[in-house]
Amino acid sequence: MKKLLIKSFFVTVIALLFGLAPLAAHAQCTMCKTQVESSRTEKDGYDFSGLNKGILYMATIPYLLMGVVGYMWYRKTHSLKKTTSK
Known about the structure:
Layout: H1 2-24, H2 30-42, H3 51-85
């Protein structure tokens, strides 16, 4: 039951990160947004539509890495508790 709960938690977190985050977050950084708006008016012809997705991609990677490290840490301490309690 615990394994199912943990797996469903991680699936939910990943679904929220990749599914709902791009809808809720439009132009993460104010400086990036103003830079794109000023560039768009000066240079017609450049396409900056992928900038928001790139910002979200760069912000997601550290959170995923922290999650993986936290999960590995949890597994190691959990297995150590089992071996010491026997």
